[in-house]
């Protein structure tokens, strides 16, 4: 999702204001339908895998081979996922719903500005997951 969100933030969303009023609603509707097929499955897989990772490793339950991974990192992973989903549901989706009816500059500006929340969180989460993967690989090889 990190690569997808950076493309959306830096390339796709800035182009929204270039579409123009005529046909904007249709453009926004098409964007929402097409992007959902890409992001929703990935976000759901990410959510389920992140929750399962935490459930099976926090407090020593489950996968004992991962005992060397700091519990704080697992909590950070889970909190990051929660914040990404909260931002999506509470901020970005409502902005998209407003823009689906017509181009409204305030909704557009809110979308672009607040999407940095997800962009930054997914970037941090990528580094965190990378660290967790590398740590778990070294735990399994030891």
Shape: elongated
**What is the H/E order?**
HHHH
Taken together, the total number of domains comes to 1
**What share of the residues lie within helices?**
over 70%
Q: What Rg is obtained from the alpha carbons, in whole angstroms?
A: 18 Å
Q: Briefly note the structural class of the backbone.
A: mainly alpha
Q: Cα distance, first to last residue?
A: 31 Å
Largest sheet: none
Number of helices: 4
In total, how many beta strands? 0
Instruction: Give the DSSP E fraction (strand runs of 2 or more residues).
Output: under 5%
Uncertain regions: pLDDT < 50 for 5+ in a row? none
Residue-averaged pLDDT: 87
What would the keywords be for this entry?
single chain, 142 residues, mainly alpha, elongated
Please provide a brief summary of the model.
The chain is mainly alpha-helical. The chain is built from four helices and no strands.
Describe it:
- With 142 residues, this protein is an all-alpha fold.
- It has one domain (2-141).
- It has four helices and no strands.
- The protein has helices at 2-16, 24-57, 71-101, 105-141.
- Helix 2 (24-57) packs antiparallel against helix 3 and helix 3 (71-101) runs antiparallel to helix 4 (105-141).
- The radius of gyration is 18 Å and the shape is elongated.
- The protein starts with a helix and ends with a helix.
- 13% of the residues are buried.
- The mean pLDDT is 87.
